[in-house]
Structure formats: C-alpha cells, structure tokens
Amino acid sequence: MAEERLEEFFKEISEDLQRTVNFWLKYSHDEEFGGFFNCLGPSGNVYDEAKHVWLQSRQIWMYARLYNEEEQFRKPEILQAAVRGAEFLQKNAKDPKTSKLCFSLTRDGRPIKIQRSIFSECFYTMAVSELHRTTKEAKYKDEAIEMFDKIIYWVREDSTDMRLGLSPLPGVSAVNSMAVPMMLLCVLDQMETMDSSMSEKYADVGEWSLKQVLAHRQREGTIILENVSPAGGELPGSAGRLTVPGHAIEAGWFLLQYAGKKNDKKLKKTAIDDFIVRMFEYGWDTEHGGLFYFLDIDGYSPVQLEWNMKLWWTHNESMIAFLMAYQKTKDLKMLEKFETLFDYCYSKHVDKENGEWTGYLNRDGSVCMDFKGGPWKGCFHVPRALLMCKQILRDILKK
Amino acid sequence: MAEERLEEFFKEISEDLQRTVNFWLKYSHDEEFGGFFNCLGPSGNVYDEAKHVWLQSRQIWMYARLYNEEEQFRKPEILQAAVRGAEFLQKNAKDPKTSKLCFSLTRDGRPIKIQRSIFSECFYTMAVSELHRTTKEAKYKDEAIEMFDKIIYWVREDSTDMRLGLSPLPGVSAVNSMAVPMMLLCVLDQMETMDSSMSEKYADVGEWSLKQVLAHRQREGTIILENVSPAGGELPGSAGRLTVPGHAIEAGWFLLQYAGKKNDKKLKKTAIDDFIVRMFEYGWDTEHGGLFYFLDIDGYSPVQLEWNMKLWWTHNESMIAFLMAYQKTKDLKMLEKFETLFDYCYSKHVDKENGEWTGYLNRDGSVCMDFKGGPWKGCFHVPRALLMCKQILRDILKK
C-alpha cells in the first residue's frame, strides 16, 4: 500500500537530497574562475570545462532556494557560491546592451554560443529573483524585474533582439511551442514567491501564458502536443505530431499550482486529468517501465533519435506532479502513480554511493550515459524534485 | 569461406540496388512542386513534406550517377527526375548573390533553415557536376566549377559569407573538423570524374585536404579523432576526444581512392591499417554486432545521446571500404570483414519487402525508427554503397 510508505518516501528522499547537494558542493565549484563545472562524470570528475548557462543559472537558483527553504542548507558556503555564480554570469554571460545571455562559455568566461530563445535569460531571472529572497538586496530584485519585462517584450511584442537581429526565413511557420508559455508561468511563480505584489503586476502575463499552454490540449483533450499553431490548431509534419509526455506532466504541475492560487477548480481538473494522468498513461512504457522521451501522436517513428530513452528529468517532474496531485486531492490513485515512479527511479536512476542521478537510460533501463552532469543536465531537476517532494511529504505527514 | 560467397554477394547486392532505386522512384517524386519528398515511412508514405537540401542534392547526384554508370538505370525518367530536381534547387534553395544554399525548404520551396557550413553547397556541386557527365551541358560544368571555387574560398580564405556574416564568438576555438577536408576530397573526386583535367586545376586542394584529414590520425596512429586543432594536436573536452568509427572508415576509402590515383603506397597502407581496419576493430560492438555511432577515446560516456545506436550509413561506408581494400590488396582478411558487415546488414537493416534500409537501430540491432527517409537519411548512402559494391564485385568476379 502506497500510503503506508509515506515515511519511507520521506526518509529516502531526504537522504537523497542531502547526497545530491553534497555532490554539487564537492565537485562543481570552480574556485579559480567562478561559476560551476557542469560536465561531471559518475563520481564527480570534470570531463569537460565548458560552462552551460542554463545550468549555471539553475544551480544559483537551486542553491538560493535550498538556503531559503530548508534549514539544513542555510549555510554561508551555499549562499556564497550562489552569489559568486551570479557575479560570474553578470560579468561574462550577459550583454548589458541587449540583456541577452549566452548559452555556453569557456571555463574562463568567453562566449561559445548564443541561442535565439528566451531560456538562458529566464533561468538567470529566476536565479537573481531567488537571490533577492535570500539577501534582500534591491539590485537582485531590480535585475529580475528588468529581465522579466524584457523577456515578456520579446515574446509578446518584438523578438528582434532575442533573435540577434536575424529574421525568420520565409518558410518558417509561426508556432506556439509549449516550452515558452510554460517557462513564463515558471518565472512568474518565482517572481510571486519573491514578492507577492508581482501577481498583480504580471496578472495579464499569467492569464496569457495559461491560455497559450492550454492551447496544446488537442483532440478533445485526449492529448497534449508540444507544438500548435498560434490560432490553436494542429501543425503538419513530425513537429506538429510531437508529444513529450514528461514535459506535458511538468506543465501539469505548473497549471495545478496556478489553479491553486486562483482557486480554479476546472483548471485543477484539467491539469490532473489531461496533463498529468492521461499523459502519464500515454507515455509510460508498459514493457520496461519509465516514460518514453518523445512520441508521435499518430504512431509514426519520431525523428528524434533519443525518442525511446528514459530521461531523469521527465521522472523528476512526474514525481512532483503526482505527489502534488495527491496533496491537493487525497486521491490514492495519485499516490500509487508516485509510488510507481519512486520505485522506478530508486532502482534505475539513483546513485546512492556517489550522489546525484544517472540521467540517461536506454529503453530497457540500463545506463546509456554514466555522467551526472552534462551540457543539458546540471544541479536542477533532481534537487528541485527532491526538495519539493520532501516539502510536500512533510506537509502530508504532519496532517 | 568469404571467397566462395562472392557470387552471392553480387546477386544480393544487385537485387537490393534495384529494390532501393525502385523505392525512391515510386514514392519520393513530387510531381506538383518539383524536388523530392525525403521523409518517407517504412513503405514509402510521406510523413513530413519538408525537403532537406543535403538529401535533395544527393538524390540528384545518385540518379545521374546511376544513369551514367549502370545500364539498367539509363532511363529517361531517371535523368528527367535529376534535371527537375536541380531546377527545383536552383530556383528555391540557392542565393544567386552569395552562392549559399539552404538546409531545408517547405514542400513548395520556401527556405526554413540555412546552415553556417559548406555541406549543402558541396552536395549541390556534386549533383550538377554529375549532371554534366550525363547531359554534356556546359551550364552544369560551369556551375560546378563556380561553386567549388566558392567553397574552397570559404574554407581556405574567408568564411564570412558561408557564416552569413556572423563572426565566431570569442570563446570558440579554431578546429579542424574531419568532415570538411573529407568533403573536399569527395567533391574533388567528383570533379575529376566529370573532367580529368580537374586533377591538375585542383591539385593543391587535394594535397591540402589530404594533409588536413591525416592530421586526425592521433596517438601514434592508433586512433582517428573527429576534431583536432589547426596545428594538428588534440583538443580538450568531449569534442576533442570524440571518435566516429564509421566516419573514419569512410575517410579511409576516400584516402584509398586518392592513394590509387597518386600511386602512393604509404598512403594506401595508412588508409587501410589506421583508418579502416583499426577503426573497425575499435568501433565494432563485439556483444551485439554493428558499429557504435560515437565513442570517447578515453572511455568517458560520449555526450551524444545516440552514441550506442547502430546507423545504416556507417555500415554502408564500411562495406565500400573493406571491399575496396580487398580489391586493391587481395587480402582475404578484408573480404572477411566485408562478410561480417554484409551478414549484419542483411539481417538487420535491409527491407526486402519494401526496398531501402531501416536506418536507425538500437544497440541490440532492433529497430529504433522504422522510416526509410528522414531529415538526415535520403537516397544516398544505401544506393551509393550498393552501386559501388556491385561494381567492385563485378570487377573481382571478372578476374
């Protein structure tokens, strides 16, 4: 019975959070140049010195959040590392004229790559926003608001600077990619956590993003597609048929959180039924366990070579989603799905010896890549999920 | 005994070539807008209408080559399709001012994406060059020479236009990526096939490209790395440790061909020993068969998620390499490796019912993606390998 395991879940997850944070504290800090090494092998060895800005920003955010919310992590070394990380990005990654941030840097901070998207900028905004919660310094709050306003301007008014001045080619169709409004909802939640008056300031952004995310609910609510047309219809081709079950489930808990703030029962039901439960059932591999990474809604082979792999972050986000759904509904079916995910992750992904999770598994659950950090995996999905699940479990157990 | 199977190899490969060409003739032609559908499902269904320019150009080249070199394919419909394909690209994909070609187009020819590299342009050059052999029309030869001169200028003198005017960022290290000089050797061979006087015109390009490819032979000749420094040393990080065994083996037969033209015995030995045989032994999966796609020379997990997959083209290129090595040395060990590859491919990749090959297999050889054509797989590696192997086997059997 899943309910009888609540204490066990809490204990395992608490220990795992401590191990995971220890891993990053021990191996990732670059004392010489600042910032964090994020390409770390199975036991913490640096196998590539490049610094990826999504991951640098997320680690700053994570450290500040841990410092703010969990007593055991309220340590000067954690705060100091977050502050130094932000200094590294401010100095090296951000263009003060355009507010664009790079995607990757050399160890000593020279830009390697810039993306024509909003993600480096959004994660950086989250980082400085959470740092304001910790330090109360006005500069971080000012920076967060200035960045968020810029991002909103790029998304909703003029994307020229975000696209580095390059126009889209004539054959590129306009697309509502779910990642963009999801990201705005996530940053908005962070801004509200920093300062509750932000809800009012950005109310319109919240409603717009919500509508944009819900437009991905297609075929009478039976599927969540990654890409839809700006008018809310399906797009042709492989991109139009693409689903990422773990991403839809992550969107589900963003919506569930939003529904809670607005006390919106209809949205709560849509989030749980259509984004979380149905997409879990759709995406779960009944043969080997784990969520498929990509699927094509009409059953064609996805064109992404990694489609059948099992990735840590989809499981992290699903753990949060089902535990939050259980917390908000007391529906035992939600806890049972969490149990399924917990058992999968703690037998396949978790490294109890070295800390952190093995991120990339083959379809059958065997290890495909053994590293703990890479160009797309840093100090974020694992500790965020463990922290949130620990907090939710503590709340449930208290009652 | 591999030698006793020569007739069988010839027969199977001849039938497979016919099936494969039939597949593309039957399903890929877009009679309405011109060009070719290249995203084709297992039995030829169009699952995405985008047209990828590498593949469009390669199909034109392949059709013209088949028309020129194999009696059974000397058919007006094949020539006409090649000519119409070139018209489609000239009209839609090429910028007449800069000579840049797009990477992908919509079905009706509107540009979706442009790469800052030379590959679309190189495959297009090969296509028009081979069309000159077929049609004898001066315009194709002029176009091929003009394009090749432009490409050489980009690679060796000024890459600004190739990079669409964008400068590399300050953290990007200069790199000798093996794909570039390999591509130049391949286009050069095509130009010589079109007109033998090209050997003299481009002699310097040949020698330069040869030197650039050989610089990838590292650690006393024991390994072929994908990326080295311009000075010929190893680069740091994952990119510096990357090997693609099937790509090194393909480079091997390019070098073997070059050595034959120059009657260079030392180069012949290097090509066979270091690029072909050693990289095959390094890259072959002794547990499940097939060549790993990517490996890290120091044994770290490669960062490419598809590293352990088995891809059709690496096996196609290896079939050519070992059969050519056997033809040129009469060393039975080469034929035995060819036999190993033949048996792997004809049990895993080949689709005798529908024609063409299933391109993307999981590590264990099971099908990962069932399509015959996709954004990176078109009418090229399979028919080129089958045509070349058929021609080599015919030559061997004649003697």
Secondary structure: elements and pairs:
2 copies of one chain form a homodimer.
Chain A: H1 6-27, E1 39-40, E2 46-48, E3 51-52, H2 53-69, H3 76-92, E4 104-105, E5 111-113, H4 119-135, H5 138-156, E6 176-177, H6 179-194, H7 198-201, H8 203-214, E7 217-218, E8 223-224, E9 227-228, H9 237-241, E10 242-243, H10 245-262, H11 265-283, E11 295-296, E12 310-311, H12 312-329, H13 332-348, E13 360-361, E14 367-369, H14 381-398
Antiparallel strand pairs in A: 1-2, 3-4, 4-5, 6-9, 7-8, 10-11, 12-13, 13-14
Helix pairs in contact in A: 1-14, 2-3, 2-4, 3-4, 4-5, 4-6, 5-6, 6-8, 6-10, 10-11, 10-12, 11-12, 12-13, 12-14
Quick overview:
Two copies of one chain form a homodimer. The first copy, chain A, contains 14 helices and 14 strands.
* Name of the CATH first level of chain A: Mainly Alpha
Give the SSE order of chain A as H and E letters: HEEEHHEEHHEHHHEEEHEHHEEHHEEH
Overall geometric form of chain A: globular
The helix content of chain A, as a percent range, equals 40-55%
Give an overview in words.
2 copies of one chain form a homodimer. With 399 residues, chain A is mostly helical. Chain A has a single domain (2-398), classed as Glycosyltransferase, CATH 1.50.10.10. The first copy, chain A, is 55% helix and 8% strand. The first copy, chain A, has 14 helices and 14 strands. The first copy, chain A, has helices at 6-27, 53-69, 76-92, 119-135, 138-156, 179-194, 198-201, 203-214, 237-241, 245-262, 265-283, 312-329, 332-348, 381-398; strands at residues 39-40, 46-48, 51-52, 104-105, 111-113, 176-177, 217-218, 223-224, 227-228, 242-243, 295-296, 310-311, 360-361, 367-369. Chain A has a 3-stranded antiparallel β-sheet with strand order 3-4-5. In chain A, strand 1 (39-40) and strand 2 (46-48) form a beta hairpin. In chain A, helix 3 crosses helix 4. The longest helix of chain A has 22 residues, at 6-27. The model of chain A has no long low-confidence stretch (mean pLDDT 98).
